[in-house]
Amino acid sequence: MEEAIKNFPKQFGWRPEIKNKISKIKYNNFIVCGMGGSALAGDLLRVVTQTEFGSVRIWRDYGLPDNINKKTLIIASSYSGNTEETIDAFLEARRRGLPLAAITTGGKLLELAKKYNIPHIQIPNTNIQPRMATGFMITALMKLMRFEKLSHDAGNLPRSLNINISQRAGKALAEKLRGKIPIIYSSAKNFPLAYNWKIKFNETAKIPAFCNVFPELNHNEMSGFDFGKFSERGGITPPPTTSHYFKGRGGGGRVTLFPQFHFIFLEDKADDPRIIKRMKITKKLFEARRLEVRDVKLEGKGVLHKIFQNLLIVDWTAFYLAQSYGHDPEQVLMVEELKKMIK
Question: GO molecular function, one example (predicted)?
Fold first, then answer.
């Protein structure tokens, strides 16, 4: 895993090749069908494409959505090529005569693409986990979607991404998060990054993690951490410990709920100023209730650099957390166990 993180920037130096001719139609809508790490690149592409490029939708399920027009390109994305849900989506797209392409290292998906002469890109199989192959996957997606400008920008990432800076930041953050449950908050625009953080904590560090977005969380989730006692003059008076005290039938007593939570706010200067304001105020409200909150700033030279420099931080954080807990950062044994039980 350590070598996979160090070598990650090199993935953007790879030049994908489309096998079988793809239609010359200029698609403006794309549905990326994938699960787990194979869908993360599509999520990240949505951060970039919200303003400049075509609409990108992620489908994490069997089958396909209803009412897809013929100017929408369906992209089946499976790192292993054997993802059950993705293969089902591939077959459904073919049955309905929809424009179709595939991205994979091999497996059944590659066999089907070759059998039916479906345009496809075979990404390098470097024996890494799908969640660590987002560079390969997003580069392949940009090629299929004909995002030439983005592809050019991505080609600069092997030189501009700084492994040492992200490693130092990740190691320091891992020390703060040991024994904690991360909850990652971002703007709605940057939710794919928050979701990537959650996945890396789940799969690499083997710990629970959760994520949500502003402003929606200010209307509901935030209230779940409101355990302070309001004074008559207004304002909050936090309890001596971060716990609830229950009384009533069936007994009572102090129940500790919150000490393990650690909130991470992904701050982006490019966010709507109203979202930035909400983040600052929410942080104050949480700190007044003795909740641990930490800011992680999204910084970089261009949007792609900003995204992947940020994600390298969580890669290192999750890696060092796994080491501190004695976990294998590479394998996802429960996922493999589930797959065997399904078969």
Answer: mannose-6-phosphate isomerase activity
Q: Which helix (H) or strand (E) holds 258?
A: none
pLDDT digits (tens, 9 = 90+) for 310-323: 999 999 999 999 99
Say how far apart CA 72 and CA 75 lie, in whole Å.
10
For the stretch 277-333, pLDDT in tens is: 999 999 999 999 889 999 999 999 899 999 999 999 999 999 999 999 999 999 888
Partners of residue 174 on adjacent β-strands: none
- Domains (ranges, CATH) in the chain? 2-156 (3.40.50.10490), 161-325 (3.40.50.10490)
Cβ pair 5, 132 in contact under 8 A? yes
Token pair, residue 36, equals 């787990």
Gyration radius of the chain over CA positions? 22
Distance CA 326, CA 205 (A): 9
Q: What angle do CA 321, 322, 326 make, to 5 degrees?
A: 120
Dist. CA 39–CA 131, nearest whole Å? 9
pTM metric for this prediction: 0.89
| Sign of the alpha-carbon torsion through 313, 315, 317, 323 | negative
Instruction: Show Cβ contacts of residue 190 under 8 Å, excluding neighbours closer than 6 positions.
Output: 47, 266, 268, 271, 298
Give buried/exposed letters for 264-275 (b at 16+ CB in 10 A, else e): bbbbbeebeeeb
> 201-210, 246-255, 310-319, 330-339: lowest mean pLDDT where?
246-255
| Residue 333 Cα to chain centre, angstroms | 20
In three-state secondary structure terms, 75 is strand
- Helix residue spans in 146-264 (DSSP H): 148-154, 157-160, 163-177, 191-200
DSSP, res 205: I
Q: Return d(Cα 179, Cα 194) in angstroms, integer.
A: 20
User: What are the DSSP calls for 19-55, one per residue?
Assistant: BSPPP-----EEEEE--THHHHHHHHHHHHHTTSS-E
